[in-house]
Design brief:
- The protein is an alpha/beta fold.
- Helices cover 23% and strands 17% of the residues.
- The protein is built from nine helices and 13 strands.
- The chain has an eight-stranded mixed beta sheet with strand order 1-2-3-4-5-6-7-8, with helices on one face. A five-stranded mixed beta sheet has the order 9-10-11-12-13, with helices on one face.
- Strand 6, helix 2 and strand 7 form a beta-alpha-beta unit.
Length: 295
Amino acid sequence: MTQQIPLGGKSRAVEKDRDDGTHEIAPDLAYERLIMVNVVFHGLPASGDRQWVLIDAGVTGTKGVIKRTARARFGAGARPSAIILTHGHFDHVGALEDLAAEWDVPVYAHALEHPYLSGRASYPPGDPSVGGGLVAALSSLYPTHPVDVSGRLMPLPADGTLPGMPGWRWLHTPGHSPGHVSLWREADRTLIAGDAFVTTASESAYATALQSPEIHGPPRYFTIDWEKSRVSVEALAALRPELVVTGHGRAMQGETMRKALQVLARDFMQVALPAHGRYLDHPARAEDGSAYLAP
């Protein structure tokens, strides 16, 4: 099976590449690519201390880059008011413990992700049998152990709002992980999708480096419940977003992007699922505890 849904260049978002190293896609929204993953900065440039939010925290070794970018974008000494996580996989929490401590900032995540963020449980192992390229082939070697930010860890507000991000709501989009969330702003139909779906073939090192924008399902090698992932993609496609930034790949916008996302949702079982995989017939779920392994 193939996961690729080719898209033309017109689908790439209009970006302003700033001197701070970010790709700005809205006046208060920018993202930065850190090796294989994106982090997102929400807040107006030069807004100052506690006036912005960091979404996800990159891979190990990127703390210095994130801090330099934050300083350049928001001002010297400007700390975020919150760190919000789409989920807790290693490539989204690599700098989390250090940044949360240095900035003395609360960390918000869905309650079903908390065991992975408080030292209590590891993720199920990556699955190299899904194929698709070098990134997938090496996935059994990727860290699945938890981080521990339990002293600063907070649940996302039950009313769906997001701390420090007025006008935004969080949406539970499980499948790639039990407590995966996506962030949605209705006013301009902007979606921060995390890894619910992505805009590059994340299994392939070549595609990850090339960064040609195209809609793909979630990274296969770490997706542990394909049925829930399908439902999540359907829910996000139904929003008909205008602008999308995901955990992997370039931001995308417009009607061509929406049509490709609709195709992904409609044909998910044909275009997103791998031909083989340990979690196809045996999903790991929060309900029976199979998603939470001893650390």
